[in-house]
Amino acid sequence: MTTRSTIRIVVCLALFVCALTAAEAFNWRNVCKKCDYINQPSATHCESCQTPMNHCLKCGTDNRIDADYCVKCAAPLAEMRILGSIEPEVREQLKLGESPRARADLDIRSLRHLIAIDPENTEKYQFELGLKYQAINFFSRESETWRAFVKDFPASQHIPLVKQYASESLRKWGYLMYEQGRYSKAVELLNESLQMNPDNKTARTWLGQATKAARRGDRIVEPVEAAEPVYGY
Ligand SMILES: [Zn+2]
Ligand SMILES: [Zn+2]
Question: Of 45, 133, 196, 210, which sits most exposed with the smallest number of CB within 10 A?
Fold first, then answer.
C-alpha cells in the first residue's frame, strides 16, 4: 500500500466521520428517508428527490428541517416527523397521535412555545393553557396555570371565570391529596380553593373533612408524587 493511498483512505474516513457527526447532531433529521440524501438544515424539501422534510401534519406547512415548531401553527414537529414516516393508512388504522391526551399534549407544547416566542400575548395563551389542562383533568397543572394567571393578569377580563376554574381545580387536586392520605396538603389546597371562590360549597365540605383528618396526622409521611400523568417538562 502506497503512502498516497493510505492518506486517501485516512482522509475519506475522516470525512465520513465528520459527515456522520454532523448528521447525528441533527438526529438524522436532515437525511432524506426516501433517498438518503443529506440536506441542508434550511431546506424544506429534499434537494435530491423533493420529498418534504419537515411536514406539519396539523396544518400542512412544509417547514425547514431545523424547525422544532411549525412556523404557521406552532405545532411541535418532533412526533410529526415520526408519524409522517408511517404510511397514512396505517396511521389512520392505528389512530396514531389521535388520542385526546396525545392531542392535548401537542396543544400544550404549542402554547408553551407561543408564550416563549410571542410574550406580548401571554395572557391569551396562558388562559388557553389552563383550559387544555382542564380538558384532560390534570388538576395540579391546571391549578398552577390559573394561579400564575391570577398573579400576572389581575386586571384581565377573564379573572372572575379564572378564579372559579382555579377554585374547582384546587378542590379536585385537594381531594386527590386527601385520598392519598396527605391531609395537611389537602387542607392547604382546599383553603386556597376557597380563597379563589368563597362560594365553593363542595370545597368547604371537604376542607372540614380534611381538617379533621389532618389533626390525626398524615397517613403517608414520605411525600409521594401526585397520581397524575407526568409530562416531559
Ligand atoms: Zn430525497
Ligand atoms: Zn402547522
Answer: 45
